[in-house]
Protein 1
Amino acid sequence: MSEILVKERDIVIPGEALAEGLDYLPGDNTYRENNQIYSKVLGLVNISGRVLKITPLAGPYVLKVGDKIIAKVIDIAMSGWRVDTNTAYSAMLNVKDASMRFIKKEEDLSKILAIGDHVVVKIINVTSQNLIDVTMKEPGLHKISGGRIVKINSQKVPRVIGKQGSMISLIKTKTACEITVGQNGLVWITGTPEGEFLAERAIKLVEEKSHLEGLTDKIEKFLGGN
Amino acid sequence: MIANKETIMMLAAQGKRLDTRKLTDYRQPIVIETNISWTAEGSAKVQIGNTTVMAGVKLSIEKPYNDTSDQGGIMINAELLPLSSEEYEPGPPGIKAIELARVIDRGIREAKAIDLHALCITPGEKAWFVIIDIITINDAGNLFDVAGLAAMAALKAARFPVVNEETGSIDYKNRTDKPIPLTKEPISVTVYKVNGALMIDPTVEEENSYEARLTIASDNDGTISAMQKGGKMPLTVEEVGQMIDLALERSSFLREELNHQLKN
Amino acid sequence: MVYRKRFDGRTDEELRPMEVKANVIPNAAGSASFKIGKTWAIAAVYGPRELYPKFLQDPKKGLLRCHYNMLPFSGSGERMRPGTSRRGQEIAMVMTKALEPVVDLSAFPNAVVDVFVELPQTDAGTRCAAISAASIALAEAGIPMKDMVSAVAVGKVDNKIVADLDYMEEHVDEFNPESKGQPVSDIPIAVIHNTKELTLLQMDGEISKDDLLSALRLGQKAIEQIYQLQKKALKERFVKE
């Protein structure tokens, strides 16, 4: 008596019924009520076997341990720097996690990172109340200088990166830019001004068209043969 | 808030911008719509790039001020709505909104763009008062120019309401075809100095990177009716001259857009 | 003492013409424009973001906070003074209550999701338009929600039970000579789509219990027209090429 009411990659809104009966299971961003499975967000339907999931098309970034994000220094404390994570929660970058080298007690922390600086950091701890610790003490984590930072919806980050990094590699190659994608939706691009602009537009295009299939071809076409 | 200040300044010195526009180009599209609100005697919505501003004109009959007993009056108010940017909070207008309203007010008032004598009904007793409310819908930079254009478009679109001859009260539900007596059309252009270069129509990021700005309201014959300098750094007289030249040239571009789009 | 045919010729459960759009404010996390007749609401959602003042913070979940404001030129009479009014504050509060039952902010302790609604022009039914717009804006912002909420006013105009009263119907005895002295009841409601439960219910005027229940049922039915447009607005951005 079970029936599926949607197709793979259908766009659904909150409260839209996805399936009827107990043969199907509610996955991410869905819920079951009165024998029906409903969507809990605006998103794309993903059917894997008997599990129904929704891939959100928008939505706030939820901080996760291990994620690389781009953050902005907003305050300097005794023990380190407070950074804005582009979410409702700021994070702490402790002095001991800021650099491979030893930072002496009497050093002026603002000489290392000043208020307003952007950094690429990794989340190392998230408490139940969303108190966050980040580190900059690994390869690929650093202070940002030059280039530009653009903002996209964090839910689109996986599409911008692509399968095994295919999309972002394509954009990097075609625009000759260095690109770092933060899981929190901030993207740092550095290259020539023209290259940066082209990369920015390509990333915005991925963001806008993320619901479509064959996106890599579209982006390749947009970036042309240069 | 993302800044990119360093790159914006470096590019400006080379005559370039993050979005590859020329320093003196306005963003596209420029869209001017009028009569967007049936409850206002005149209204407009103006979009330049991603910045959108609405303006609404309301008319009322009041007692003229004592020192100008044969004239009507104007009042301009601006609200930076929290709906239009994460930077704005609910509450009474802050200094940024007050400056915006006053700069637009002076541009219109000092140009004598509205014939205030023609607004007088009975000297010393009754005259029309024009109130323009400027409302931000999406602040993506350059509110001064967009708001100035919206105020002008709303004024041009406004029509007087019917007045009940017996009671003298205004019937706001019915309108005459009589427009507001406009004698001139002042247009504001704001020129920004960024790392020594002169720039028009900044985005929010660019607005966070300027040293000085000058808003210049001018008429179609090049008469300047109001100015406002802003920013932390001083300007030389030579720079002011260059800024005026640029503003006058760009104001004729905006004026053409206004008149062209209102005709269609 | 009869109101035979509606002033604008609508059937009893027919709503005024609507124009509904999502994504109208690029700066916002989600936004919507909702026009019904000559009433127009624009909604924008910001957040989840840090909540001030701090004593409002809830360590268990995020706070939903609605704001409602009629623009100074949006009234049909004189200019309205800008700024908060008691009416605006009460409407903001009932809007929040109307949307809270479907919104899930458990992943955002201590934070706030702000919904700002502005009205550039009005002709009755503003709180309902505001709620319908806000629901779209929240969904577009990707806020986890159990369902959509749609809102409309129902009521009894003279002898007739109708949906989506306009200004003339709210003041029927001014505009219809035969309705002199007859009561009008105005009942704004908001409905959760799947369960048809009411999350907003206010009423003023006079009505009997039986008429009230028929009016509510008429509203539950009529509101489907709003839901369909909310759904369309949310989906039309993502059309397949």
Note: The radius of gyration of chain B is 19 Å.
Protein 2
Amino acid sequence: MILKTENLEYSYTEGKPTLKGLNIEIPEGQYVAILGHNGSGKSTLLKHFNAILLPTGGKVYVSGMDTSNEELLFEIRTRCGMVFQNPDNQIVATITEEDVAFGPENLGVPNPELRARVDEALKTVGMYEFRSHAPHMLSGGQKQRIAIAGIIAMRPSCIALDEPTAMLDPIGRRDVLDTIAKLNREENITVLLITHHMEEALFADRVIVMDEGTVALDGTPCEIFAQVEKMESLGLTVPNTVKLMHTLQSRGLPADLNAVTTDKAADFIARILEDKIG
Amino acid sequence: MLKDITLGQFFPGNSIIHKMDPRLKLVITVLYITALFMCHGPVPYIILGGILILAVALSKVGFRQVTRGLKPILILLVITTLFNVFYTNGGQVIFSWKFITITDYGVYNAFYMVLRIALLIIATFTLLTYTTSPIMLTDALESVLSPLKKIKVPVHELAMMMTIALRFIPTLLEETDKIMSAQKSRGADFESGGLIRRAKALIPILIPLFISAFRRAEELATAMECRCYNGGEGRTKLRVMKFAMRDYVILFVSLAVLALAIYSDYTCTFGVILP
């Protein structure tokens, strides 16, 4: 287990817990989407995984390291990197490659290796050609990929992303999601993704739905989105494809509840229609 | 409209002056300014002026840009001239009318003071701000001032503050533009009225801007912490400044010329030695 919480509790103000005794285990290499309406505690949870917040009750372990142990702080933050919503507010330097270098510079990585790490990270997110640009000249999606590169250059085994696509246009969103999927697939990096876009959760291996500081649902995207009523009662919607399949089923028409992505759903419907015609 | 504001007036280029190690430029500028204020008489100034003309020519920034840099200090130059002309005592009186007396010392003093200030400004512009990107300048300052860390001057922190300030100038300008548009669309008027009314009209821009800047600062601090920022201790740098052979040659030549200028000041017989 790379990430583990034991009875995790956290309160910003005393007597009003934001997280109420969470027990979550995340194995290495898993792509986890975390859903929940505003104030459900998902961002608070994420900030525990690199010791930005420390539990007021219970424990959090990153690769077996207790986050409340201050001596392990940098080790933990190197192991689990974090990307935030607004790309403008996490870029430090005035040149992209220098921003990517910021993390490893702080860790004291010496030069030939530092340069290699920066170049590699920039290539991984597909921003190598923009290495000497000023960040403010880039689009939102590009800036967010620079922010991701800045984390990758620290060689983490886990990346926690707090709504990284919330401020991006559709193209930027797709680029960022593709980058995240690639990191998970090719580098076996564990991904924790908070999102408000249900469609983004479809690419995950696992979906955790939070509600009022507790885990309301936990399972594969198919299992979670099959519970349309439950999701709606938690103030969340389900992806249109899932809704379509459920409507088809309730009308007594053929439906494939596993066809959650747009492509799969389109294929399924095309096949049915061909059968009908042919 | 706010996007046109540029800071530091950096002209990117590929000249030998641009390529010089920024630390070297910083050191030479300081040496040059010291020499300017140590020397008297025409010979040293001919040498010092000559170096500068050569530097400006090499930088390829253009003499017009350089002299344009003098415009904002024109008033200062005029005031310096007047003060020196009227308030220097001693020497031969060349002009006297009621309480106004002008002596030859005064005229000499005024002339040299103006020359010094003008050369100082031109030197800082060509050698530093025009030919060095702000980020390089910050790096150089951090490196040159690093011995001060021993007496607990937070050199790294100051350099970091400068870097972040430079990084956020475009972001905050963009934001100001947005806030202005938002206020204008609600009928705010920034252009008419007297000075006080206009100043008052700025409040609805400044308050949201400040609030947002503080929020950004907080988020940036968290993001920096996430990336293991812990001050300058044990930090490495991606871009290492290295003295090239060229830089050693330039340093040697500059030191030699500056020494010559100071030396000629002491030996020169036809220069007027002033107190």
Note: Chain A touches chain B through 40 residues (CB under 8 Å).
